[in-house]
Amino acid sequence: MTQDAIPQAQAFERTRTGPDTWLPVLYIALGVALISALLWSMVSGRYQVPFGHVVAILAAHVVDLTPSWTPTELIVVEVVRLPRVLTAAIAGAGLSLCGAVLQGLFRNPLVGPQTIGVSSGAALGGVTAILFFGFDNFVQIGAFVGAAAALLAVLAIHRSDSLSPILTLVLAGVVVSAFCGALVGLATYVADPETKLPDIVFWLLGSFASATWPKLSLLSVCTAVAGVVLLGMRWRINVLSLGDEDARSLGVNPARDRVILLTATCLAISAQVAVSGTIGWVGLVIPNLARLMVGADHRRLLPVSTLMGAVFLVVADTLARDLTAAEIPVGIVTAIVGTPVFAYLLRRNTSSKTS
Amino acid sequence: MIRIENAGHWFRPEHWLFRNLSFSLAPSEVMAILGPNGAGKTTLLRAVCGTLALKQGAVHAEAQIGYVPQALHSDHAYTALDMVLLGRSRYLGRFNSPGRRDKVRAQECLHEVGLSDIAGQRYDRLSGGQRQLVLLARALASDCRILVLDEPASALDLANQGIVLRLIRHLARARDLAVLLTTHHPDHALGIADKALLMLRDAAHVYGAAQDVLTEDNLARMYGVPVRRVEVCAGDETIAAIVPLHGLGRYGGDSGKSAGRAPARRLIGTDTLRHRKRSALLAVRGQMKIRPSTHPANAPSLSPTAEIRPEISSSPA
Asked: Which one of A4, A121, A349, B7 is CB 3.0 to 4.6 Å from B57, fit for a cystine?
């Protein structure tokens, strides 16, 4: 039986090359899009830096160049814009990756980083830090502590031996989010409207305006660690997405893998929240768009989603900076772009189910 | 190859679903588990697969177990080939993805269930029968020696039931698999099973060779419905069939009189039923001309003309 199976398999291999051949093209296209978006973001803004000068300033790190740029341009690109666009790219990549992972884990395309309560936990931690210590490094520590506490609370409410573990986990996330939201509301109510409140509100809405090199390094280390774990376990996420019963019968321990994956997502999300406040919709919408393009297989979905998220948030941040004279918080831009796309996806999902 | 000793389980304390249950399976043996809804069939399967800890007894499996769930959930947008590849996960580390050899193995398994040509199609767009076969291929891809199937033919149409059951029997023989399956169709158990376990009410059970255990009395006791076991001859093969006497049959001409009467009072004799079933089957195959039965009460429901105008032709007046 196996002798005649192999030629069949090879014949099939030839016919299947379709999606596999255009996949590298997609990766290259997304890479090019990301680099273009980063360059465009560094060129445009209140202080226009010529494209050639941006490239020259960046290239000067690698090769010896006689400066053709002004000192102001150097400062704008190196100190202000470069950390900011890189922060936006890494935050977008991390959020979309986490969103795709969570959607796979919970078998629900309408799940996002907010759903398991980590975002709101991190926000609560950050707000508490601003309230008591002011807007500095404590925000990052507070966000980490808040996110971890929220995750622990969710895992404590959730019981893996309950009748529907997936549902209880999502509901536990809703409970923790609601609790954190109430406390954040309380914090903004009691905050000093002269000194603390503007900081809190601006930070909660999400912005990359305060991006600096130290914040960027914190974000990139956390996102890199989480990214290696999440992308490494991309096949395991396929297995877990079948459900606990199926995963167990396929020889995989779902509980342990889920804890590893949730901890990694918690790390990436809390780092993002600490650096740039809560930015919604990216982790919900981008994985869905990626799924439309490359299908549900997480081996393809995760990397594509990561790249698309990076491009999307860089573009969104550039628009937030340039659309109006005063800067709009990027969380508002992602919500304005994200909600209609999400509405479309919702409609499309429900109509394809019924047909 | 697999031995269950003295198994027992309950969900509410001391309300035993089953207890003192012992059986064993050798390679290339097929065993069917039958029982009414809620008798604990699926619970027993979960215990066999090791995903549920029994309250009593032990399961000794000497080889890898492959589990085939019912193909009810269809929301997985993976390709059929990826679904089969998931069967290889057992052999992959946490940070590994399947490689070329896994892919070849998965393709072999898809070929073995006859689905090579749909490998690239999405699982959630396949028919119920195809999905069941893909899940079967997934279990095969895990290189199991023991195959456990939860109602493999329940959601399928008549033709697909035959395809899946024949394939299971073929796999048991060709690959020396020990096969354990649950079913609600005693016919299926009679068709492919060597052994049968009937899970009765009050934690009782009957276990033995399928042909000996699946008797009219045992089945009637299990389901609480009288049944007849009949043999249908078609060509050179004899097919055993179980016919439940639900009272859904037709009662000859006096339809007015029979209305409201308890069906059990109008049970028909085994031989009449055998004759009916056989002639109906042969008529479908075009091998036999249907003649109205000489028995006056049975005539209308057998005659083709009666199908068209039963009430008129069957009137005793």
From this structure: B7
Distances (CA, A) of B233 to A53, A340, B239, B280, B294: 90, 64, 6, 11, 21
- Domain boundaries in chain B? 2-224, 229-313
User: What share of chain A has pLDDT > 90, as a percent?
Assistant: 41
Residue A75 has pLDDT above 80, yes or no: yes
pLDDT above 70 for A23:
yes
Find, among A151, A338, A166, A327, the residue nearest to A244 by Cα: A166
Lowest mean pLDDT among A115-129, A131-145, B131-145: A131-145
Q: Looking at the DSSP assignment, which residues form a beta bridge with residue B238? A: B233
- Max Cα distance, chain A (Å): 79
Q: A with B: how many residue pairs have Cβ under 8 Å apart?
A: 86
Contact residues on chain A for B92, CB-CB shorter than 8 A: 235
Write down the H helix ranges in chain B.
Answer: 41-49, 80-85, 100-112, 128-141, 158-174, 186-192, 210-213, 216-223, 255-258, 270-285, 299-302, 304-308, 310-313
Q: Which residues in B lie closer than 8 A to residue A295 (C-beta atoms)?
A: 77-79, 122
Residue A284 has which token pair?
A: 């919900």
Q: Do B282 and B275 touch, CB atoms closer than 8 A? A: no
Contact criterion met (CB < 8 Å) for B86 and A296: no
For residue B72, pLDDT beyond 80 = no
* pLDDT at residue number A158: 75
Structural domains in chain A, CATH included, are 83-345 (1.10.3470.10)
Q: Which of A213, A235, A229 is closest to A267 using CA atoms? A: A229
Which pLDDT score, from 0 to 100, does residue A5 have? 42
Q: Which residue carries 């096969």 as its tokens?
A: B179
Apex A111 CA angle, A183 and A100, nearest 5? 120
Dihedral Cα B154, B158, B159, B164, nearest 10 deg: 20
Helix A17-43 with A298-322: angle, nearest 10 deg: 20
What is the rounded CA–CA span in Å between residue A181 and residue A188?
11
Residue B56: strand pairing partners:
B8
Q: Which CATH architecture has domain B2-224?
A: 3-Layer(aba) Sandwich (3.40)
Interacting residues of A133 by C-beta distance below 8 A, sequence separation 6+:
none
Nearest to A143 by CA among A219, A230, A226: A219
pLDDT at B262 over 50: no
DSSP for A139-177, please give it. Answer: HHHHHHHHHHHHHHHHHHH--TTSS-HHHHHHHHHHHHH
The whole-angstrom separation of Cα B93 and Cα B142 is 14
Bridge partners (DSSP) of residue B66 are: B147
Confidence at A162, pLDDT banded by 50, 70, 90: low
Q: How far is A119 from chain B (nearest CA, A)?
A: 26
The two beta strands, B146-149 and B205-209, are unpaired
Query: Which residue do the tokens 């002639």 mark?
Result: B279
Q: Which of A18, A296, A299 sits opposite B97 (nearest CB)?
A: A299
B135-171 confidence digits (pLDDT tens): 999 999 999 999 999 999 888 889 889 999 999 999 9
Taking CB atoms and an 8 Å cutoff, what residues of chain A touch B122? 295
pLDDT for B190 beyond 80: yes
